[in-house]
Amino acid sequence: NAGVTQTPKFQVLKTGQSMTLQCAQDMNHEYMSWYRQDPGMGLRLIHYSVGAGITDQGEVPNGYNVSRSTTEDFPLRLLSAAPSQTSVYFCASRASQRNTGELFFGEGSRLTVL
Amino acid sequence: QQQVKQSPQSLIVQKGGIPIINCAYENTAFDYFPWYQQFPGKGPALLIAIRPDVSEKKEGRFTISFNKSAKQFSLHIMDSQPGDSATYFCAASIGGTSYGKLTFGQGTILTVHP
Lengths: 114, 114
Fold this sequence. Notes:
The complex is a heterodimer. Helix content of chain A is 0%, strand content 51%. Chain A has strands spanning 4-7, 10-13, 19-25, 31-38, 42-51, 54-57, 64-66, 76-78, 87-94, 104-105, 109-113. In chain A, the strands form 2 sheets. In chain A, strands 2, 4, 5, 6, 9, 10 and 11 form a 7-stranded mixed beta sheet that branches. A 4-stranded antiparallel beta sheet of chain A has the order 1-3-8-7, with no helix packed on it. In chain A, a hairpin with a 2-residue loop joins strand 5 (42-51) and strand 6 (54-57). By secondary structure, chain B is mainly β. In chain B, 0% of the residues lie in helices and 51% in strands. Chain B starts with a strand and ends with a strand. The chains are: A mainly beta, B mainly beta. The interface between A and B is medium-sized, with 29 and 28 residues.
């Protein structure tokens, strides 16, 4: 079972470059989300989606865009990378829109912005 | 604004000890409190969760204690083992139209020495 798959696992960018972090899940989950993990800050929600065509902002959305054209995929776009976006990014999905049940995480994408 | 505060940041115990990790929350609308466990290089995974209508929940060696009036909850690991060495995150969410967005604590790095 693949679960939640994130690519790439590692990426180095220069300030001002753009890129897309890919996330795919094969569990037919309605809810998908992106978090960033920084030391001492825990996991902070960037954007989330409750179904195809529906997205909304989380706690730290600035500098990031998302779209949800299919149930399976939820890419995260960095429009103009900044050093403050150096972080580990996690995609996560859940079967239900409601707040019950397990949130399944990918293995993360480590991004460094120089 | 950190709505869930977790302590300590790091914790070292000997094998067989009982590490305790504490979390405090501010928003009384939170109605779901999970704990996630993260091993190095992996995404977080659900460990155990509780709702505020119970004061304690046990799953194997892991116990959540919940104090609604104090707005605090804690994780106890009985007979800790070196394999329990990981980062632990508490979290909280609200049901209904908030779509169960999880707010995480800052994380606790647990080391269990053999």
